[in-house]
Write a structure and sequence with these properties.
Chain lengths: ~220, ~220
DNA sequence: CGGGACTTTGAAACCCTTCAATGCCAGTGG
DNA sequence: CCACTGGCATTGAAGGGTTTCAAAGTCCCG
């Protein structure tokens, strides 16, 4: 049930962080309220984004009305690396006061062409996104809902806490989690309840999770 | 049931292809037989790879022995963009005479730092991989096995044929497809049989697929 | 206080998994 | 040439987990 363990933090190394400061010249920052659209299908100008605060969800609405969340973006994460891959997807703020920095893709590419360190840093951010997708793919491949939810909680804890604490707040609803894990929101509920009853986690509120028995979650 | 439609081909534009030729100075090419390991957990030196011919599968072996294929790599595709995200994953040739080019990551980064066009081309390849993962995520999120298999066939057709033909050969077994779609190989069989009986596809052999009614596959 | 969104719990139907067995095909050795 | 073996593909039947539909509970906010 364990996720793929990583040998390094998701937070980019400070060397890359320093190189990314070159983006400042074309940066603009905006704040979004919960549910507000950040970018949608067929925008005129394409941007590279980075989450500063809050959380965002990237999703696709399937024929039939079902929504599938393909990525959950937390502070530090980039999204919107060109290649036309974003067509058919929308990005929304998941909670109020979500702050994003955006950079025109054309400007980013022009800067990266001249600044090798920036180019490498961006490459690293893209590789980080790929690693995130691969881990999510493993979660989606779990057989039972309980395993999916367990791995999701571990992954989320790992992305938010830097391993210092076992408590965290979920920025999304049970319904969102369901659309993220490809199960129904009711099944998410039942799995959380089951984990709580087993003493694996405790809930100080529906979205206030504390991991009590990490080994059981991994197991 | 339709996959996310893309506005461009998966095959990189020729401008990027030209820029990628700069990698030639540190390239080495090898051929692999079916099932042969290309790279595994904890290699000493890291490489960037590109498939020339054949096919490769990237997978993780989960506790419990289950195998999950997270990526299927076809000619033109890159894999192995650093960031430590490859830990816990293995890559194998899926069929005989699979040919790969490999480039030491350290050399690639050194080249990209000095060559802005190469850096942009690599960024584009990474974005292409991200788009591939997002599409795969949508497939994994389908509710029924029939939808998963339908979308898989459409996606595979799109990646191999450049839309000129409706026939293609699967380089992987039913078991592999199951591990790729997170369903059992038996269910893959049943879905294929069902599609055949409905006249949606025809099979000239277990791995020789022809799409008869594309609209029905799209759902 | 009421509305609305979210969460939780219950029951029946459905789909997939698992276990099992058979069929098919290529490669091998007698 | 034929039997044999192993891997892969296919089909069947029983069991279990999730979805769906339904309803009630909770919390926040106007």
């Amino acid at each position: 049930m364990a996720q793929a363990s990583l040998g390094k933090d998701y937070v980019p190394a400070s060397t890359f962080e320093h190189s990314l400061e070159a983006l400042g010249s074309c940066e603009s920052v905006r704040s979004y309220s919960r549910g507000q659209e950040i970018c949608g299908y067929g925008e005129s100008e394409k941007y590279l984004y980075r989450v500063r605060e809050g959380a965002a969800r990237k999703f696709s609405v399937q024929p039939g009305g079902r929504r599938h969340i393909v990525d959950l973006l937390l502070p530090g994460n980039f999204f919107g690396f060109g290649c036309g891959g974003d067509e058919g997807f929308f990005v929304e703020a998941a909670i109020d006061r979500t702050v994003l920095a955006q950079y025109p893709l054309r400007r980013v590419n022009a800067l990266a062409r001249l600044d090798g360190n920036l180019a490498l840093a961006l490459q690293e951010m893209a590789a980080e996104a790929i690693a995130r997708f691969e881990r999510q793919m493993l979660i989606l491949g779990k057989t039972t809902a309980l395993e999916k939810v367990s791995c999701f909680l571990l992954e989320f804890s790992s992305r938010t806490n830097s391993r210092t604490s076992n408590a965290f707040a979920l920025p999304i609803s049970r319904y969102d989690i369901g659309d993220y894990l490809a199960i129904s929101s009711e099944t998410v509920c039942r799995s959380m309840t089951q984990l709580k009853q087993r003493g694996t986690i405790s809930l100080d509120g529906p979205r206030e999770v504390r991991i009590v028995d990490r080994a059981a979650l991994e197991g």
